[in-house]
Write a structure and sequence with these properties.
Two copies of one chain form a homodimer. Chain A is α/β, with parallel strands linked by helices and about 325 residues long. Helix content of chain A is about 45%, strand content about 15%. Chain A contains 13 helices and ten strands.
Chain lengths: ~325, ~325
C-alpha cells in the first residue's frame, strides 16, 4: 500500500473538523520542573480532554471523515485502553453505536468507563487474533465500520491537532516530546512539528521494555516486542503500516526510559503540578529528565497524553 | 478587641497588593460532576497556587501590609500544614527569613516542603502551648513578627481574593462553597460574596467530626472539638477572635459531611477532573453532593483550597 502524502492543509482541515467536538486543552508549566529539566517545559494537558486522553481527537477525526463519504451506521474497534473510551465518546456525539471489542480479562474499571460513554462491549479471548475476529464479525453483522486505534492516517492526523494547538499557543517551541506506542500520537505530533513555520524537532519517548519503535527506526522495518510488562500500559502496542513511514520520515530521535524513571516522573507531576497523568504520559517527562544534555535547555513541549489511571492500583 | 469593619475597598486593595505575587488560578468545570450535583459547578483551583494552596494569598497580604508600616526583619508562625509552606514562599519572595514552628511529630514530607521554599523549621512538643511558646521565643530573639495562619484580618482578606477572582470570572454565581477550619478562607470568601454586586450566598463545608464552626454559629460563641481525627487534616483547627465575628455576620449555612463522603468526593475529582486535591478541599464538593436540595440547581462556586497530599498515604 502506497503511503499517503500528508500536507499542512490536511492538518489544518483536521483541526477545523474536530474543533467543535474536542476540548481545547490548557498548556501548563511548572517552575520546579523547569529547574529539574534545565529547560522551559510546556505541558499540553490532554489528560483534561473528554474521555481522559488525546485519543478523542483521532477517533473523532476518523469518524467524521468516514461520514463525509457515506452514512456510517456504527463503528467498531478493538481496544482495552483509551481508544475504547474515545471512540465511544465520538460515536455518542454523532448519535451512532460504538462497538468495542475488549479482552475478557480487561479491568472492570475500563469496561465501566466505556459503558459511561455509551460504548457497547463485546468480550473475546485475550489474543490479537480473537480481537480481530470479533471485530470482523461485528462489522459483518451490523455494518459497523472498523477504525484502528492508531494505524489509520485519519486517526494520526487527528492526534496531530494536539501538537498543532500547542504550537499555536507557544510558537517558538524548539522541540516537542510525545510518547510512542502504536505511533498515532508521535506521527501526528511529527507532522505538526514539520508543518510549523519554525524549526521544531519531534522527539519520541518510549519505555525501554517495549522499545519497538526505537528498534524499528534503527532496522528500517517494523519490529515487535518480546515483553509487554511496562507500567506504561498505553505503549505496549507496536507501529503499523501507516504510522511507521511517517516516523521514519520525520522522527530522528526516540529516548528510552526505565520503569523507575517513568514512575518518578509520574509522581513529580502529581506532586508538583497537581494533575493526574497516566504512566504512559509520564514517559515523555521521564525522557526529558533522563537526557538534559540532549534537550540542551531548548524550549520544550510535552504532550501529556492522558489521565486515565486506576487509583486503586497506583505504582507509588 | 473591637472587630474590624471590612469594606469592599479593603478587599479590592488586597487583590491589587497580592496580585503580582500569586497565581491567578484557573476555574475548571466538569459535565459529569454537574450531572451528579444537579447544578453547574465552577471550581476555583487553588491547588495550582504557588505552595500548593490558597494560603499563599493570606500570608502574602499580611506580610506586605506589615512591611508598609515598618521594616520586617523576619516572620514566624506555627503550622504543620499549608500555611507553613505559604509563609515560606511569601517571605522568600520579599527576601526575609520565615521561621516555622512545627511539632516534632510532623510528617517528614511537610518538613521537606517547607525546606524547599527556604523556611527555617523549629521543632517543638506537639501541644498548642509549646507551639506558642516557641513562636514567642523566636520572635523575641530575632525580631520576627508573628503571623497567625487564619485568625488575622489581613490573612482573611488575602484569602478572600480567591473568591473575588472567581466572582470576576463567573459573575452570576449564586452561591460559593468553601471549607472551614480556622475560618480564614470561609471568612474571606464570605466577604467577597457580600461585596459582589449580585446576591451570592457563602456556604461553609465542614467535616462532621470537627464541626466546631457549625456549633459555634449555633451557640453564638467559639466552640472547640473533642476529637480531631478527620481525614481533612487542614480543618482540625477552630475559629478565632477575628474569624468568628465575620462568619457570625455573613455566613448562615454550614453543611457537615461524613469521612466517607469526603473520600468519595476526593476520588471523584481525581478520577473525573484529573486534578490532585487534598481531603480538606474535597469537603466542599462533598457538601454540595450531600445536599443537592439545598443547592437547588444554583450556579455554584467551589473553592478548591489545595493539593498538598502525601501520595504514599492516600485514603483510597
Amino acid at each position: 500500500m502506497a503511503s499517503l502524502t500528508f500536507t499542512p492543509e490536511m492538518l489544518a482541515a483536521a483541526r477545523e473538523l474536530v474543533g467543535p467536538h474536542v476540548h481545547h486543552t490548557p498548556v501548563m508549566h511548572s517552575r520546579l520542573l523547569d529547574q529539574l529539566a534545565g529547560a522551559p517545559l510546556f505541558f499540553k494537558c490532554e489528560n483534561f480532554q473528554r474521555g481522559g486522553s488525546y485519543k478523542l481527537r483521532g477517533a473523532t477525526h476518523a469518524l467524521l471523515r468516514l461520514q463525509e463519504q457515506a452514512p456510517v451506521p456504527a463503528v467498531v474497534t478493538h481496544s482495552s485502553g483509551n481508544f475504547a473510551q474515545a471512540l465511544s465518546v465520538a460515536a455518542q456525539a454523532v448519535g451512532i453505536p460504538a462497538h468495542i471489542v475488549m479482552p475478557e480479562n480487561a479491568p472492570a474499571v475500563k469496561k465501566a468507563a466505556v459503558h459511561t460513554y455509551g460504548g457497547r462491549i463485546t468480550e473475546c479471548a485475550p489474543t490479537l487474533e480473537a480481537r480481530e475476529d470479533a471485530a470482523a464479525r461485528i462489522s459483518e453483522e451490523t455494518g459497523a465500520v472498523f477504525i484502528h486505534p492508531s494505524n489509520d492516517p485519519m486517526v494520526m492526523l487527528g492526534q496531530g491537532t494536539a501538537c498543532a494547538e500547542l504550537l499555536e499557543e507557544v510558537p517558538d517551541l524548539e522541540c516537542v516530546v510525545a510518547p510512542v506506542g502504536g505511533g498515532g500520537l508521535l506521527g501526528g505530533t511529527a507532522l505538526a512539528c514539520t508543518f510549523t513555520d519554525n524549526a521544531c524537532e519531534p522527539i519520541g519517548a518510549e519505555p525501554l521494555r517495549v522499545d519497538d519503535a526505537y528498534r524499528s527506526l534503527q532496522s528500517g522495518r517494523i519490529e515487535s516486542n518480546s515483553r509487554t510488562d511496562t507500567v506504561a500500559d498505553g505503549l505496549r502496542t507496536v507501529l503499523g503500516s501507516h504510522t511507521f513511514p511517517v516516523l521514519k520520515q520525520y522522527v530522528n530521535t526516540i529516548i528510552r526510559v526505565e520503569e523507575a524513571e517513568i514512575i518518578t516522573a509520574m509522581r513529580l507531576v502529581w506532586e508538583r503540578m497537581k494533575i493526574v497523568i497516566e504512566p504512559s504520559s509520564a514517559v515523555a517527562l521521564a525522557a526529558v529528565l533522563k537526557d538534559p544534555g540532549y534537550i540542551g535547555g531548548r524550549k520544550t513541549g510535552i504532550i501529556v497524553s492522558g489521565g486515565n489511571v486506576d487509583l486503586g492500583k497506583l505504582p507509588f
